[in-house]
Amino acid sequence: MVPNADALGMSTASQTVCAWCQQPIRASATAEDSHGICLDCLPEVFSIPVESLLQMDQTRLDALPYGFVVLDERDAVVEFNAFEAELARMRREDVLGRNFFTEVAPCTNVEQLGGWVRRARAIGVDATTQVMFVFGFQFGRRLVDITLSFLAATKTVTLVVRETGSQDRDAAAGSDPDCKRSRAKE
């Protein structure tokens, strides 16, 4: 059973656009914008289902062309691949076991990310959403598309983080351009 968009604080749209390529996908009945994944981008984004990604060994996870982070039921980081480590300029071994929303990336503890995770956990059913977000790293801003997935059976959250190529963009849903992602001990 998949929760409806209202239950997770997400809106439906008058025009749904692809979260990856920003092309229109289809019209909808309400007046707000929403994102999905178009059929052209779907193979690139989800060529490997989240459940399968969770079964990969570290070498294969590190070869992924996007960031991959897994949080346990307490939001502690249990997986952090090489792409994400490079994007965040954080060492994997310094991030594992730390709370993602309070210690690793506190700027993500906003309604669209941390709030969505808390709501998905409270509802207790599998759910997925996409969010555009600006990380205000100390070394510069990075606009990313984040796909969050909550798997009720394991109570885990996966984040698939795809850099959009923009390095200094001030506006994205739910992001705080002044938020500095905390750095793990070096």
A few lines on this structure:
The protein is α+β, with helices and mostly antiparallel strands and 186 residues long. It is 23% helix and 28% strand. A hairpin with a 2-residue loop joins β6 (127-137) and β7 (140-151).
Structure notes:
The protein is an alpha+beta fold. The protein has a domain at 47-163: PAS domain (Beta-Lactamase, 2-Layer Sandwich). Helix content is 23%, strand content 28%. The chain has 7 helices and 8 strands; from the N terminus they run βββαααββααααβββ. The protein has helices spanning 42-45, 50-53, 58-62, 82-88, 92-95, 100-104, 111-123; strands at residues 15-18, 24-27, 33-36, 67-71, 77-80, 127-137, 140-151, 156-163. The chain has a 5-stranded antiparallel beta sheet with strand order 5-4-8-7-6. A hairpin with a 2-residue loop joins β6 and β7 (140-151). The radius of gyration is 16 Å and the shape is globular.
Structural class estimated from helices and strands = alpha+beta
User: Whole-number radius of gyration?
Assistant: 16 Å
Query: For the record, what is the CATH homologous superfamily label of the domain at 47-163?
Result: PAS domain
Main sheet specs: 5 strands, antiparallel
What level of helicity do the residues show?
A: 10-25%
Overall shape: it is globular
* Termini separation: 43 Å
Oligomer: single chain
Share of residues in strands:
25-35%
Individual helix count: 7
Average predicted confidence as pLDDT: 75
The arrangement of helices and strands along the chain is EEEHHHEEHHHHEEE
Q: Do you know the CATH topology of the domain at 47-163? A: Beta-Lactamase
Number of strands: 8
CATH architecture of the domain at 47-163: 2-Layer Sandwich
In which order are the strands of the major sheet placed? 5-4-8-7-6
Return the CATH class of the domain at 47-163.
Answer: Alpha Beta
Unreliable segments of 5+ consecutive residues: 1-5, 9-13, 28-35, 168-186
